[in-house]
Amino acid sequence: MLIDFKSLLSNFICEKPDSYIVDQILSRFPTPRDLVNASELELESIKGVGKVGARKLVAALKFGPIISLSTEPTIRVKTPEDVYKLLKSTFLHLEKEHFVSIFLNSKNMVLGWETVSIGSLNACIVHPREVFNAAIKRRSASIICVHNHPSGNPDPSNEDIEITKRLMAAGEIIGIEMLDHIIIGHAHYISLKERGFM
Known about the structure:
This protein has helices at residues 2-13, 19-28, 32-36, 40-44, 50-62, 80-91, 128-137, 158-174, and strands at 98-104, 110-118, 142-148, 177-184, 189-191. By secondary structure, it is α+β, with helices and mostly antiparallel strands.
């Protein structure tokens, strides 16, 4: 179903289909339901979509050709390795730190994921507001946070441990549990939960 979904998006937003643009849309709006609720302004803010592409997509969604596609999540996360396998290609060759939130339902099925912050070569500043705003929008029961270390060494820094504690505290207040924080390096990863930092 995802292939059809991507094909339809390509046809609606650009004359020359661009898989990068489609991937950006699917990252921010991973299900047809999310897309239906997206505003023209939100779509236009995605680089490469533009005003015309956003208008065409919003108009198409009003007629419902995409809504009939399955909206049921199909990926379940059980272990940190599952997360690593899911996102390792996303972090391949990145030269800056990217902080990604994975949104889960009550059965640990993946609702989607989103890059909430992009940092420098060795630091990524992320605010709990950005992480949980996206989680609330997805109606998440829980989240898993993931970021990369471009140096290749996934050992957590003091800042990584501190932001993990802040996110856990924010999640407790909001009612969205943070299940893990995973750091990806070159061909391997660490789980802060497994390391005892959570």
